[in-house]
Known about the structure:
Oligomer: single chain
Mean pLDDT: 85
Distance between the termini: 57 Å
Structural class: mainly alpha
CATH class of the domain at 39-178: Mainly Alpha
CATH architecture of the domain at 39-178: Orthogonal Bundle
Number of strands: 0
Strand content: under 5%
Number of helices: 11
Amino acid sequence: MECLVDLGWSGTSTTEVARRAGVSRGAQQHHYPTKMVLVAAALEHLLEAQRLAYETAFAVLPPERRNVSGALDLLWEVFRGRPAKALTELAVAARTDDELRPLCRDLNERILQVILETFERLFPENTLPPDFVPAMLRGVFAMFVGLSIQNALDDDAEGHQAAVLRQVKDVAQLIVPQPGIPAGPPMPDTPAEASSPGSEQ
């Protein structure tokens, strides 16, 4: 993870990994014979690190912040953390690396699955339609990936990413109400439904 974040994919080598880990090349190769075997293990570690970071951070939030706004704040912190940066580095590198691409092909889906499972665990009482939640979280995921890449370049010097996050939280609070507060009426799926006779009654 440190090599990927500090040096990028092109600068990450098994020699440098062994040096930073404080082990010999022979010891490293005994456990991970090739760079791709090492990367595969690193992917599993990084995905688990993201999940644990999010769940642990949410668990220690004060009760008044254990809502969708607090959850999004924490998710944004996770996306700006080192495990997420390492995963993004791998995903971008895989676009042009034929050997790396098969390892990362389902990376986004696996991260999304972690986010979905965590959402359902944190908000078990939500009344959203089951097919709506995955699509909603997929949109949030895509937005946060883009924001995190921007953040890695400018550290939000102008506050643009913070402004987007505030807007997202405002909308999310309308969609995912706090416990004990009923959800609003479902939005129509199509413009035709929105303008159908009787829709204003």
